[in-house]
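Deliverable D4.2, example record:
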Amino acid sequence: MNSKEKFERYAEMLRDWSSRMNLVAPSTLADIENRHFADSAQLADVLPADVDVYDFGSGAGFPGIVLAILGWRVTCIESIGKKVAFLNAVRDELKLDNLTIFHGRAEDFLKQNTGKNDKKAGNFVITARAFAPLVKILDYIRDINCRLFLLKGREIESEILTAKQKYKFDYKLIPSKTGDGFIIIVHFDR
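Output generated by the structure prediction step:
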């Protein structure tokens, strides 16, 4: 199966599973390709090619599964069992050997897979879409040197102001190609 066929099958599975459980807003199912796939895929323009991607709160696989289809090594981190079942079904159906699914919370994954002075820190990045406010994500990674590549909405400026009250970090905002949100790239060094 090539990438185009994988995205087509992924869309079919998303529509089918969403008829039985709440994976994405029903109003977005008519435009999966732009609303979910293209929105997630825009990270490919800014992500380094040689990193592992840890996707917090993967839900229906955005951006994690999209990035795995595009070739990154991805770990989707999801705490809700029914969403984990969907992620596993997509991984198996699309034969995504570069995709790992972690059933649990982001903070538990980080405790198990990183250390305070983890030399691996430069070899992974964290992504998220519709997961948590920026300050909460920084709370999770406060002891880790890493980079964040987050898909955020138009309220990101207020999230940055709130996070800057608690943490020092450098960031870059890139306007979304698919909506009125942004990609925020955060360099967080402890």
